[in-house]
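re: the backbone from monday

yeah here it is again, tokenized this time
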């Protein structure tokens, strides 16, 4: 994809459904009794991988545009797949489905693409094993492909070393199949869609925050059944983030981004934009299906650098590539720290972000847990090596809009993972 600098992005965009919520609707609908009807489902490759896995596990899932109907078979209604489950590029599919599979009375294997099979799975293998699961890394390298054999689970209390919604959700889902109570404490609260949605499906789940610290705990007890729901998926703030950034840094722009989820465990980017001096207004705020939603109005702003660290990191972890692009456009220095999780995303995003920013002429220094960006210098067009990471492709497509000369985004088709219509939405603003 070749892109060049522009001015005046104006108009209204509607962002496709939230990736995290779309995955969960399919998974919870599959193990619930009755029909789950999902509107505004994200038809990205990751969520389609989840659908395919549950079809292989015997669930009838009908797709009609962005409306999905899941004919759930109940908590104990999955059947053994006759082949390896293909999880594609999706860490969420892998880690969450493993929690469900650990509690099934059959054996199965799952595997993904090169990137997925390099990502750490020990973080779920350890707690699941502690619960009595028979789960192993087939190549004994702590990564997928995974083999999950039938096992009898018992509840545990797990202190997660990382604030990871995928780890938390994996353990809570296994807890549906365990004897007794299962609980997970994380150092600071990661996205809580699993907790919110499992409760809607009828799970026996509660959450608690420690008053004098940022630690958060979720507790689950097994229940008889979950029950199918009707769900409208809010727009994905992680996808909206590219248009928020574009609206702020492209001269003479004003963009209204409709129906975006602003769950506080996901909305750290809004706070960062505010801290950087961004002109952002939330309109029409409301709550639907337990999730907070708003329309977001952004206007071109003169941004300045900031420091991003600590508990806010899990609430914006997927937005760091685009935040780094905003930081490159902002006057002064931006420091991002406490974000070593970036190294185990679809690519090592400390490396992919800083290498590509440097290629565009930005003064940037990678650190062991983040990066330091000296912004405000003009960017030049460059060849962007996405390494097939969807968020790198989209973040640097926005950087291209303020760079002098042409930018070539290699393998830009990887946006299909989370936002197949990204470039089409973009054209609506020209
Ligand atoms: C996700 C959780 C996050 C995020 C990922 C989606 C989820 O990962 O990076 O894109 O849907 O639970 P971690 O929970 O591992 O930080």
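seq for it, each position gets an aa:
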């Amino acid at each position: 994809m070749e892109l060049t600098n522009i001015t005046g992005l104006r108009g209204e965009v509607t962002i496709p459904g939230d990736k995290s919520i779309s995955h969960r609707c399919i998974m919870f609908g599959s193990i619930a009794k009755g029909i789950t009807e999902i509107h505004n489902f994200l038809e990205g490759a990751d969520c389609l991988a989840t659908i395919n896995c549950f079809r292989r596990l015997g669930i009838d899932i009908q797709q009609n545009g962005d409306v999905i109907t899941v004919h759930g078979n109940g908590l104990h209604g999955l059947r053994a797949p006759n082949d390896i489950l293909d999880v594609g590029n999706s860490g969420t599919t892998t880690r969450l489905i493993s929690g469900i599979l650990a509690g099934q009375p059959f054996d199965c294997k799952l595997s993904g693409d090169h990137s997925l099979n390099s990502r750490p799975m020990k973080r779920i293998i350890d707690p699941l094993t502690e619960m009595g699961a028979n789960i192993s890394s087939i190549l004994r390298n702590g990564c997928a492909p995974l083999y999950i054999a039938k096992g009898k689970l018992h509840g545990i209390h797990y202190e997660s070393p990382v604030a990871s919604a995928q780890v938390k959700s994996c353990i809570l889902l296994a807890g549906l199949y365990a004897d007794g109570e299962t609980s997970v404490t994380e150092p600071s609260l990661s996205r809580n869609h699993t907790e919110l949605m499992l409760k809607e499906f009828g799970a026996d789940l509660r959450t608690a925050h420690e008053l004098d610290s940022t630690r958060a705990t979720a507790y689950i007890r097994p229940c008889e059944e979950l029950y199918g729901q009707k769900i409208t998926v809010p727009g994905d703030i992680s996808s909206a983030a590219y248009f928020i950034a574009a609206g702020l840094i492209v001269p003479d722009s004003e963009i209204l981004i409709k129906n975006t989820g602003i769950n506080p465990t996901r909305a750290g980017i809004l706070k960062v934009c505010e801290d950087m001096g961004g002109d952002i207004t939330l309109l029409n705020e409301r709550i639907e299906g337990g999730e907070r939603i708003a329309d977001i109005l952004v206007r071109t702003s003169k941004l300045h650098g900031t420091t991003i660290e600590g508990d806010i990191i899990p609430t914006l972890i997927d937005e760091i590539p685009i935040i780094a692009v905003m930081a490159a456009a902002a006057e002064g220095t931006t420091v991002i720290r406490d974000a070593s999780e970036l190294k185990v995303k679809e690519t090592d995003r400390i490396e992919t972000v800083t290498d590509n920013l440097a290629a565009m002429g930005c003064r940037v220094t990678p650190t062991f847990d983040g990066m330091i960006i000296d912004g405000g210098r003009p960017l030049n067009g460059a060849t962007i090596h996405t390494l097939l990471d969807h968020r790198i492709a989209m973040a640097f497509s926005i950087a291209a809009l303020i760079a002098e000369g042409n930018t070539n985004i290699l393998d830009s088709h990887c946006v299909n993972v989370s936002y197949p219509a990204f470039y089409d939405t973009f054209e609506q603003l020209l």
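The chain has two domains: 2-16+234-427, 19-232. DSSP finds twelve helices and 26 strands in the chain.
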